[in-house]
């Protein structure tokens, strides 16, 4: 069992800061010990009951596992408000110090106002609260003043830009620093970016000059961020981008779909009635298959499967493969019968090197899991499908490249040449916005 003096110095400093900052934002990358740091703050500084809101998998496994690892935390009592209505109500009635609930049940809990008797609030992965329009945000907002202490935790506070901070920081200071409404925030710090010149409908916003630094200065007294490389001795991490070529027939079909928003494959007609649908269809296409109107899968090419096969042949290291589409998972399992789909029961087998290929969706394997693997010469990750979400991308990569990883990490990206894949890579690298990527990949032009 770990002891308190084994906390890193930077963790000790954050715990000390919390003594004088009742409402605190910890923007720490995965692997820097947000959970242990926060639990220590709860144990030593919080009075009364603490409500922790977290993504479902994190609520189920991460927090109570961390409690059991540390000598100074093991007396904390944890109750999980999960499962059926009856199970959740029983968990609420249990005597505990910490009550864990998943995002999907926040609105339900807030409706039981008589049951909302918590003194402290912690929101794990606060970037999931970046939209003030969600039902859970609107429900919780009414109760924020009732908490004596409020903490937010995330490694990706601004996955799609600085505007993502408004609602997160508002949970801490109730609008004191970044205005009391999103409209006021935009008026003060932003300007319209993409706009329909006829209807004046604004599709996206961009920051005014120097606004990012002004925003950072406004919140620096209550929000703290660290970089993993400054505090941890991590092995090298190499990102490789493999250009995948598709055959002439597939290329012609891709271009037809992009330009006409419709193609025929065999006797099936594949249509994409909107730009958003088309972007998604193009990503399906580059993966190697598309869905028909009836939900059936039509395979178009096997280029990515064949390239992944060559990666596996060239290295004996255990390989974590991220997919997005269900048809990608199905085709991967057919091509690689030895592959195993990630679940809670096989994580340790993966870490021991007993699984040659582990398949995971970035949203299920992207938060709260420790997937370090130090068995082979390297730890390999392959992005078979590429996600638009930089938040999911960063979180998923950090499942392996985090504290405890000793062997070098290689992250492979399978990118079909001259396709939407290349635009997604630019988004993930922060070189262009999601809006620009969609317009570029579809070649639809811009409104002025």
In short:
The chain has 448 residues and is α/β, with parallel strands linked by helices.
What this model shows, in words?
This protein is α/β, with parallel strands linked by helices and 448 residues long. The chain has helices at residues 9-18, 34-45, 56-69, 85-93, 106-111, 135-141, 165-173, 182-189, 211-219, 228-231, 248-260, 275-287, 303-314, 326-335, 347-351, 390-397, 420-428, 434-442; strands spanning 23-27, 50-54, 78-81, 98-102, 120-124, 149-154, 190-195, 202-207, 223-225, 237-244, 262-265, 268-271, 289-291, 297-299, 319-322, 340-341, 357-360, 379-383, 409-416. It folds into two domains: 4-227, Tandem AAA-ATPase domain (Rossmann fold, 3-Layer(aba) Sandwich), CATH 3.40.50; 237-442, P-loop containing nucleotide triphosphate hydrolases (Rossmann fold, 3-Layer(aba) Sandwich). Helix content is 37%, strand content 20%. The strands form five sheets. It has a seven-stranded parallel β-sheet with strand order 3-4-2-5-6-1-9, with helices on both faces. Strands 10-19-18-15-17-16 form a six-stranded parallel β-sheet, with helices on both faces. Strands 7-8 form a two-stranded antiparallel sheet. 40% of the residues are buried.
